[in-house]
Predict the structure of Tryptophan synthase beta chain-like PALP domain-containing protein.
Amino acid sequence: KLDAFSCAIGTGGTLAGVAAYLRSVSPTIRIGLTDPCGAALVRYFEHGELRGEGSSISEGIGQGRITGNVDHFTPDLCLEVTDGEMMEAIIDLHTRDGLAVGTSAGINVAGAMQVARQIGPGHTVATVLCDRADRYASKLYDADFLRSKALRVPPWLEHGSAPKARALFSALRDAALATPAG
């Protein structure tokens, strides 16, 4: 049994669409909007004011506009995730599960963990892993950039391995793009 679902809002298509379906089959499910700290849509849904404050290294989420996708959407929970929490989720997914995810997926996982803490033990929370790490190689695999933002540098970037990591992700991306769909 799924008790809650949360993810970043971006343009709202995934969150509002999944929420509409889940609420149609389970009216008691809790839906969480998870966005970077200072995101405008968190303030919009909490206070009716479309105002962003702060910044994040994440891209494509934390939008400052209302799209048609969210015309009839209201979250049960609005959650903000720091870049530090996002990086911890990204590092944990990579280290423990071998998953190289991007910043949006990191926000989603950190947000789902917040939802889980709020609703307590014995509940099931879902989210989506919506982006790959290679899209953010210039940020996530740049130890100097991460340090400049006071973010934890993953162990695999220490001791000069960052260029190798970036090269590996570039090769994987190129191979994925060259593979015919089907």
Notes: The radius of gyration is 17 Å. The mean pLDDT is 86. The chain has two domains: 4-131, 135-182. The domain at 4-131 is CATH 3.40.50.1100 (Rossmann fold).
